[in-house]
Write a structure and sequence with these properties.
single chain, 235 residues, alpha+beta, 2 domains, five-stranded antiparallel sheet, two-stranded antiparallel ribbon, elongated
Length: 235
């Protein structure tokens, strides 16, 4: 969650949400229907002016630099306990070792989750709660913590398995990859795979989940159906 990729993704999401709400506040048809539905739902008058002013005030506050930072911190606090619990439940935990004379790399985004695809290939960019994915965290050049049971490998890896794991670790890096020794082979792998798995772009994407638009979320937040026109005003 503290990785630069995730922070960038969080900031992009926040800016999109703010812009969506800005457009909603300036959409007379949306505001009119929202006010009517909310009036009927609550049994008290809710004017278009009050609704528009509240959304406009939110947008003004949300465009301040501190708002994006606060949103990121809120997300971090909300997910840290759940993420930690999911990670603790990934069993077994094992320490992997590289072949003699070889090493694990690490990066500025050191924890990687992946799914074994067969033939040794590891596909990175999954969440902790996926039972079919494992998590790996290099602890030292000669030790890597593997959490989960999806990747069936011995504790002492062969060169092919090490290369696949290093490729996965390199692919989720943001800017930097670290190795104990200067190696032309590792440099080639960094040039080929470095930063190819991007948070919110082609990794850590929710599959099969339809995320509501800001307009739908606003209606749901006040107990309304997400689609407009579900309530009729009656005398």
């Amino acid at each position: 969650m503290r990785a630069t990729q995730q922070r960038s993704h969080s900031d992009r999401n926040w800016q999109k949400i703010v812009e969506d709400i800005r457009q909603a506040a300036n959409d007379p048809d949306y505001i009119r229907q929202f006010a009517l539905d909310l009036t009927y739902k609550r049994g008290v008058p809710v004017t278009e002016e009050i609704l528009r002013d509240n959304l406009t005030n939110f947008v003004e506050d949300a465009t301040l630099p501190k708002s994006a930072r606060n949103s990121f911190v809120s997300d971090l606090l909300e997910h840290v306990e759940r993420g930690a619990q999911q990670l603790l439940n990934k069993r077994p935990w094992r320490i992997l070792r590289p072949p003699e004379g070889m090493e694990f790399v690490t990066s500025d985004n050191p924890l990687v989750t992946f799914v074994p695809l067969g033939h040794g290939v590891l596909h990175p960019g999954y969440g902790f709660n996926k039972e079919y994915s494992d998590a790996a965290l290099p602890l030292a050049p000669n030790a890597c913590l593997l959490m989960g049971h999806a990747w069936n490998v011995p504790k002492l890896l062969d060169k092919a398995a090490l290369d696949h794991l290093n490729d996965a670790l390199i692919s989720v890096s943001d800017r930097y990859v670290y190795s104990k020794t200067l190696s032309s082979e590792i440099q080639e792998r960094v040039d080929k795979y470095g930063g190819t798995s991007r948070y919110g772009v082609n990794a850590f994407m929710p599959l099969g989940i339809k995320i509501p638009a800001a307009r739908q979320f606003l209606r749901a937040r006040f107990g309304l159906e997400t689609e407009a026109g579900q309530w009729e005003v009656r005398p």
